[in-house]
Write a structure and sequence with these properties.
By secondary structure, the chain is an alpha+beta fold. Helix content is 57%, strand content 10%. This is 2-hydroxychromene-2-carboxylate isomerase.
Length: 196
Amino acid sequence: MSKTVEFYFDLGSPATYLAYTQLPKICERTGSQLTYIPILLGGVFKATGNASPATVPAKGRYMFQDLDRYAKRYGVPLKFNPHFPINTLMLMRAVTGMQLRHPERFATFIDCLFKALWVDGRNLDEPATVAAVLTENGFDPNEVLTLTADEHIKAALKDNTEKAVQRGVFGAPSMFVDNQLFFGQDRLDFVVEALG
């Protein structure tokens, strides 16, 4: 029976972007299922007392150097976003809405947003930039905006975030295999072992 990787993610985390580039390949190689669970990282931080490593200047500088090393190892593009940190509330509501209402377009949707943030360095704090990115990728910005205002979708993102905290999630990316938590894109080798 195939195993599942539950992937708790927020677009605003560069480490999550790197995990996102690798997990589909890992799951394909191991015959595993990948389940995407959108969360609001700010809500996780607030609930757990955690904070972004970037809030400690020396740690932040190191983190981005380290992420760059991993991007080179993985053979994927990564550019430090000059607008970091990004408030991802509306983006993650949109992601949740797309997953619930248009699952057939979900992968393309998160692809274009991850690329805009962590390859193109675009400012997704600005509604006009978000609208431009969506339009360029074949999405209707007004339709997406409607999703972000839907009370059911707002509640789903909040519920995902609360359940993540209850399971022990304190940051992103977080992955579960057989209820075992793995935190960070630099722990993917342990995810592979757990899938074996």
